[in-house]
Amino acid sequence: MHAQEYSGRICLPRTHMSKVLVVCFSRSGNTRALGASLAERLHADFEAIDEPVDRSGPLGYLRCLVDAVFARSVRIGASSYDVAQYDVIVIGTPVWAGTVSAPVRAWLALHRRKLPHVAFFCTQHMRGDASTFRDMTKLAGRQPIAQCAIAASVGAHDKQRAIDIFVDQIERRLTRIDNLEWAA
Predict the structure, then answer these.
(1) CA–CA distance from 57 to each of 36, 60, 63, 94 (Å)?
(2) What are the NADPH-dependent FMN reductase-like domain coordinates in residue numbering (predicted)?
(3) Distance, C-alpha 13 to centroid of its chain
């Protein structure tokens, strides 16, 4: 078994067989970087939600706000993974106008009926994580096993601490899932 070190802690790789998928949308790359990092930490598959609309620049930013405020439906690319094959789906979004991004809203609507356990994370410049998580819970149709909000203003140490807690919460739930499978 190979150990890795995170923030001064030694973390052993998961030994259970639970499958995790981390899926997220990112306009600027921040949410994607966090999602990829979480996937590595959780030994999970990773998928970035693909959207054919260009959201770069000031016009793209304005489109993001309008889509979020009016909860407009958007088109997204097909998923590469079947969510029904996973034990936990970790879903990430940037906070747009105090709510979930339109591409993540579309992804949740598309996969709602097949979702197993879920965990949520978001990146934000100011605030809005409470309303974002509330909206994601409603869209997913289930309570998350863990949630993590990362604000741009948070220092590196506090950010890493929040991520460590989030990963620990997910791994504890995965251990319970594996124990139930072994007992069955």
Answers:
(1) 24, 5, 10, 16
(2) 19-113
(3) 20
Mean per-residue pLDDT over the chain, rounded: 88
CA 101, CA 122: separation in Å to the nearest integer?
10
Counted domains in the chain? 1
How, if at all, do strands 88-96 and 99-100 pair?
Answer: antiparallel
- pLDDT for the residue numbered 125: 87
CA–CA separation, 119 and 94 (whole Å): 15
CATH assignment at residue 135: 3.40.50.360
Rounded-to-integer distance, Cα 94 and Cα 83, Å: 21
In a domain, 184, yes or no: no
User: How many C-beta atoms lie closer than 10 Å to residue 146's C-beta?
Assistant: 20
Is the pTM here over 0.90, yes or no? no
Residues 51, 75 contacting (CB under 8 angstroms): yes
Query: 3-class DSSP state for residue 52?
Result: coil
The per-residue DSSP string of 156-168 comes to HHHHHHHHHHHHH
Instruction: For residues 89-93, give the mean pLDDT.
Output: 98
**Could you tell me if 121 and 42 are in contact, meaning their C-beta atoms sit under 8 angstroms apart?**
no
